[in-house]
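Shipment paperwork, digital attachment
Item: protein structure file
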Amino acid sequence: MKIVIAPDSFKGSLSASEAADCIEKGIRRVLDCETVKIPMADGGEGTVEALAATLGGSLVTVTVKGPLFDDVEATYCIAGELAVIEMSAASGITLVSKDRLDPKATSTYGTGELILDAIGRGCKRIILGIGGSATNDGGAGMAAALGARFLDKNGTIVSPSGGELWRVETIDVSEMPVEIKKTEFLVACDVTNPLCGESGASYVFGPQKGADKETVKLLDENLSHFASKIYECLGVDVREISGGGAAGGLGAGLYAFCGASLRRGFDIISETVALSERIKGADLVITGEGRSDYQTAFGKLPSGVANAARSQGIPCVLISGAIKGDISALFDNGIVAAYATVTDGVPIDEAIKNAAKNLERAAETAMREWCK
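Attachment content:
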């Protein structure tokens, strides 16, 4: 028997790699069989660690500028000529204390520094997860780190932050490395928000980053102005790109300055780890996540794994840290059984503390029922 183990991270308790190890231990209490572990991610938190484990990559830590231009240590993964970067490592909201959150001042400059570092190490393909940002700069900071210059009407360099974009009159990309054009950029982007407008970056995500109503309006106007200058100077229209508003407009910036493709995170990651190829011939696929509810069936990672398994006629079992509400839609996606590692009423601290033991036990239970 061959069992493929392809979980997401159990956020707050176990990485995807740790979760896969726990599930494997539970299986081996019941069966002596072939197991294939494929720690998974969808471009969000844990993507770097998961792909480092799955692809046998190495982790690289460098000092870059954080959202407010303080020095921060940021880690990304290199596997051959592939780099995997989470923008949140350099420009994430968790890097800024609540009392300092200010999307007018924050910048994606550090994310650009990570890209530059990866290219300098010979990477020719870069996957970027762009969730969890503290920024609203349209990717100006990222582009500035790569050598783009933003100039005002007097030829003075404009700070690449959300509150200063209104000053940009000219964009000069002549000093950006030629390697940028030779590098493939894949952006894991699961939101479809455009750059500007009521469903754009500023109005939808700005309040989460500390923007009040007046600031939201200003930021949206600044992004609109920035988009017009990108079109005027680069000939690239970023206004209507699906996902252009992700990460405060970083999606649009990566498209404009790096020629990036914006795609669903799970699709990028599953192709990169060759999920469909590696599950061929399996008798069972096991996936998992920290919490499952009705949303799991609509684009979350376990649903993607289950669909990949179903396309090959392979049953898929879900093991989740907690199951809330109606998950019946999952059974239309290829999930044949679902298990929770803890029951309702268990305190969250206790569940996190015992996450590994509980996951092993749930995997053992699933296997015993599967083998009946």
